[in-house]
Amino acid sequence: MHLFTRGNLEKSQVLIDAAAEFDMQMALPKNTPTLQALSMGNYMRLDKVFISTPLINHVMRCCTSPEEQPARTDPSQ
């Protein structure tokens, strides 16, 4: 619920507007987990990877490396 506060929605709109203005696309496939929470062990999709539209067809692979996650990166800790 805390994600949908007025302040957070206004901040996210800035990112949405910038992505539209600069014709950015998501390079990381939809629903790709990018972080495992330390507290619960569940996977979250916090990080997004944007790329300019003219380059999107040149991406061969975009994925995560959970084994390379630094210690204590859980934002809830």
Task: List the helices and strands in order.
Answer: HEEEE
Helix fraction by DSSP (H/I, runs of at least 4): 10-25%
What's the average pLDDT? Answer: 79
Query: How many separate helices?
Result: 1
* Poorly predicted spans: none
Distance between the termini: 18 Å
Shape: flat
Which radius of gyration do the C-alpha atoms yield?
15 Å
The largest sheet, given as strand count, sense and whether it forms a barrel, is: 2 strands, antiparallel
Q: Structural class, from secondary structure content? A: alpha+beta
Strand content: 5-15%
Number of strands: 4
| Spatial arrangement of strands, main beta sheet | 1-4
Please provide a brief summary of the model.
0% of the residues are buried. 21% of the residues lie in helices and 13% in strands.
Can you put this structure into words, describing what you see?
Strands 1-4 form a two-stranded antiparallel ribbon. The chain has a two-stranded antiparallel ribbon with strand order 2-3. A hairpin with a 6-residue loop joins β2 (35-36) and β3 (43-44). It has one helix spanning 6-21, and strands spanning 24-26, 35-36, 43-44, 50-52. Helices cover 21% and strands 13% of the residues. It is flat. It has 77 residues and is α+β, with helices and mostly antiparallel strands. The chain has a domain at 25-62. It is built from one helix and four strands.
How are the SSEs placed, and which strands pair?
Elements: H1 6-21, E1 24-26, E2 35-36, E3 43-44, E4 50-52
Antiparallel strand pairs: 1-4, 2-3
